[in-house]
Amino acid sequence: MRYPAWKYVLILFVLVISTLYALPSLYPDEPAVQISGAKAGSQIDQTVLTRAEQILKSASIATHDGSFGQNAALLRVRTSEDQLKAQEVLRRELGENYVVALNLAPTTPAWLQAIGAKPMKLGLDLRGGVHFLLEVDMSKALEQRLETATADIRRNLRDNKVNFNGVRQNKDNIVVSFANTTDRDNAVSVLRRQSNDFSIQSLASTDGPILQLKYTEARLQEINQYAVNQNLTTLRNRINELGVAEALVQSQGSNRIVVDLPGVQDTAEAKRVLGRTANLEFRLVSEQADTYAGGPVPAGTQAFPFEKLDGPTILLKRQRIVTGERVQNAMSGYDENNQPEVNITLDTAGGKLMADATRNAVGKQMAVLFIENKQRVSYVTDPVTGKTVETRTPYTESVVINRATIQAVLGSQFRITGVGTPQEASELALLLRAGALAAPMYFVEERTVGPSLGQDNIDKGILSTQVGFVLVALFMIVFYRVFGLIANFALFMNLAMILTVMSWIGAALSLPGIAGIVLTIGMAVDANVLICERIREEIRWGASPKQAIVAGYDRAYTTIFDSNLTTLLVAFILFAIGSGPIKGFAVTLAIGIVCSMFTAITVTRGIVQLVYGKRRIDHLSI
């Protein structure tokens, strides 16, 4: 019996690493509130932390161990009730420049954190998490569609040589004015031939004959449904970019979306990224921009602040070249001056629009307009009840973040600079890469949710796992003596390896995941049972103890490998076609199978070699 020295080194290395990185899972997290800037580049310093501590002290909410991390302040509190109260107080006192989010602070010892060890995340059914309820602004979705339709109508009438005085967009309709009824009737024929989306009504006004176009009820429902579905898709993409495991994103009613984030997450970052309706518009700079000194803007142009809200005003042409909806990919990086930039790739249609617009504009300037829909939160005290009421007023913030001279005809790939800090460039790229929201969304509700299965059910599930583990261990000791003890050690090592790998990859453990671990333990024991029974058979057939050990491992290996491989294939299929709890089960099962192959064969054989390999054996304790 010989066993390579390098395998002992590998086993010892895996044992030490697994033990160290599984330890953090034994330390529970505690409730905390996290304060971060409303924008990615906002800085949080000791002044903010001190102010927050004073605010909570005035509200009789005890805090401890205030700290900084990833440009955010974290204040720990004693209970979940204090956590909710602290969030409400800080949100009201600090204002809209800061995001106050619920979070869980780790209690892992510093020496474990120093080596990158972190506890395994728990799913929504085991720990609970953060619950967001967002409302889609349907009026804004309609306004955006009407804006696009207005430009299309203007272009169609011109292409068909129909005379008209003007096209203007109202809140829920489009009005086209004419000089005479003949032009109006010609326009009706053209518009009905082009689209059936509108109900067209001929009216008379003091300025002459007009057409009033309103979307049909069927088309309005399509627009609303598209806005919700597109926002659902975009939210899922953004959550994937954030790396949130097993998140739940689903619609509720006609215009609301529910987002549940399980386990320990940076809820401030999640809230900032999920709720932002960031979009880009590429427009040509007006020739009158350099001479504009304020006052009424010339026809066909719009005025926007440059770089900052309090920066100089710049005139842009009203017509957009392309918007962020045409962005196929976006990556942040650095230019030749080591300044942050965002490299953008447009889709085919966007590239053609960009090329057409810049072909005759070489030498002119193009600007990048950053548009963000926000909510202004204010608090008003009811004079009758004395209660503080929160009110939210939506508003749009538009700033020019880049202005540059067009050196050549642009196509599908180009870059924008002047995007602020590296963090802001990275977040802008994330938002564009994940897709644009079809309409703004506003947070209606944010709260922590408890375990969905109930603590009693969770305790029973964990208890059943512990009882099963103990019974399996006793079974192995009673039936296989020393070999049973060795198999039990391998089981503990297998469990530590599973916890370590899951914490490394950020997988969240749910109750189905626990079922996957239990099944893995059963399969690992099954492998050791096959090996032990094979050794017994070899001894009955007259083999010496050492020959029986070698033959038992060698001949059982093929059977163990085949059975684990087929189960691993099933785990991959479940992960590919499943969702939520099914994926949680598949992940833990796949990790457990790979770990059990190592512990049930390599680890146990190495220990058996240490026990029996260096001495004469007359009898095996099996």
Describe the overall structure.
InterPro entries: Acrflvin-R, SecD, SecD-TM, SecD/SecF_arch_bac, SecD/SecF_CS, SecD_1st, SecD_SecF_C, SecD_SecF_C_bact. It holds the Pfam family SecD-TM1. Its main location: membrane. Strand 11 (248-252) and strand 12 (256-262) form a beta hairpin. The chain is elongated. The protein has helices at 5-22, 46-58, 80-94, 110-114, 138-159, 181-194, 217-242, 267-275, 348-359, 422-434, 455-505, 511-540, 545-577, 581-612, and strands spanning 30-37, 63-68, 73-77, 98-105, 121-122, 129-136, 166-169, 174-177, 198-205, 208-215, 248-252, 256-262, 277-284, 301-305, 313-317, 322-323, 327-334, 340-346, 365-381, 388-405, 413-417, 441-449, 508-509. The mean pLDDT is 81. The chain has a 4-stranded antiparallel sheet, with helices on both faces. A 4-stranded antiparallel sheet has the order 11-12-6-22, with helices on one face. Strands 7-8-10-9 form a 4-stranded antiparallel sheet. It has 4 domains: 5-24 and 450-613, Multidrug efflux transporter AcrB transmembrane fold (Up-down Bundle); 30-105, Alpha-Beta Plaits; 139-219, 2-Layer Sandwich (Alpha-Beta Plaits); 276-449, Gyrase A, domain 2. With 622 residues, it is an alpha+beta fold.
Beta-strand content estimate: 25-35%
Beta strands, count: 23
> Approximately how much helix is present in the residues?
40-55%
Would you identify the CATH H-level superfamily of the largest domain?
Multidrug efflux transporter AcrB transmembrane domain
Q: Please state the CA-atom Rg, rounded to the nearest Å.
A: 32 Å
Could you describe the largest sheet, including whether it forms a barrel?
A: 4 strands, antiparallel
CATH topology of the largest domain: Multidrug efflux transporter AcrB transmembrane fold
The top-level CATH class of the largest domain is: Mainly Alpha
Integer average pLDDT: 81
Unreliable spans are none
Distance between the termini: 18 Å
Strand order of the largest sheet: 2-3-1-4
Note the overall shape. elongated
Count of helical stretches: 14
CATH architecture of the largest domain: Up-down Bundle
